[in-house]
Amino acid sequence: MSATVQIVNNSHHPLPSYATFGASGMDIRAFLATPMQLEPMQRVLIPTGLFIAIPENWEVQIRPRSGLAIKQGLTCLNTPGTIDADYRGEIKVILINLSSEVQIIQDGDRIAQMVFQKVEKANWELVQQLDNTERGAGGFGHTGKQ
């Protein structure tokens, strides 16, 4: 199922697009007046120049690009970042440099990917007890290492 999404592009970069037929995410680009330097462990908010009207019952998730992560140690914080359907501000990406070297972000660099996702709403039903499952309350690491 696809959705038609209104977009304002205040950057001089092409619109986000799917790189291949099977791609889930569209690459989005940095929109910078000057290159941005990221020191090790520094986090910054990178503008894209993009504004979108997400349809009702949809969200956009901002996710890291695997190439940036493995090659440069750059990734997104708050991952996946959620953009709600009623947000109309500029899409910005929180990047962090997890490498031990300074990294430079240039105008037009592909910094993240956006994935459109259908959202289901939940309604609460207040009960006194939950049904039992095989897992029960087993939490973090309850199944062991192997």
Give a written overview of the molecule.
The structure is a single chain. The strands form three sheets. The chain has a four-stranded antiparallel sheet. Strands 2-10-5-7 form a four-stranded antiparallel sheet, with no helix packed on it. It has one helix at residues 66-72, and strands spanning 6-9, 26-29, 36-38, 43-53, 58-63, 74-76, 81-83, 90-97, 103-105, 110-118. The mean pLDDT is 93. The chain is globular, with a radius of gyration of 19 Å. By secondary structure, it is mainly β. The chain has a single domain (6-118), classed as Deoxyuridine triphosphatase (dUTPase) (Deoxyuridine 5'-Triphosphate Nucleotidohydrolase, Chain A), CATH 2.70.40. The protein has one helix and ten strands.
Which descriptors would you attach to this protein?
4-stranded antiparallel beta sheet; mainly beta; single chain; 146 residues; 10 strands; Deoxyuridine 5'-Triphosphate Nucleotidohydrolase, Chain A
Decide which structural class fits the backbone: mainly beta
Strand-residue proportion: 35-45%
**In the CATH hierarchy, what is the class?**
Mainly Beta
Q: Helix proportion of residues, in percent? A: under 10%
Radius of gyration: 19 Å
Number of domains: 1
Shape: globular
Count of individual helical segments: 1
Q: What is the terminal-to-terminal distance?
A: 38 Å
* Contiguous runs where pLDDT drops below 50 for at least 5 residues: none
N-to-C series of helices and strands: EEEEEHEEEEE
* Major sheet: arrangement of strands: 1-4-8-6
**Annotated CATH architecture:** Distorted Sandwich
The total beta strand count reads: 10
Q: Within the CATH hierarchy, at the fold level, what is the topology?
A: Deoxyuridine 5'-Triphosphate Nucleotidohydrolase, Chain A
- Largest sheet: number of strands, sense, barrel closure: 4 strands, antiparallel
CATH homologous superfamily (4th level) name: Deoxyuridine triphosphatase (dUTPase)
